[in-house]
Design brief:
The chain is an all-alpha fold. The chain is built from three helices and no strands.
């Protein structure tokens, strides 16, 4: 039995910090913080998928 496709597909990685800055030149703190927040959300979503895969393949035994 295969897991659902959504469970094994990683999310779309956020753009690089430079893309948040636009043409402003340099990297303003707001752009860096926005990238960090998006990257953190991406990491958490992938971690949740990993936990779901673990539960799919190795369900907790009921004692």
């Amino acid at each position: 039995m295969k897991p659902p496709r959504a469970m094994v597909t990683p999310g779309v990685i956020p753009p690089s910090p430079a893309e948040y800055a636009g043409k402003a030149g340099g990297l303003p703190p707001e752009a860096l913080l926005r990238h960090a927040a998006d990257y953190g959300a991406w990491c958490q979503a992938n971690a949740a998928k990993l936990k779901a895969l673990e539960a799919f393949f190795w369900p907790a035994s009921k004692e």
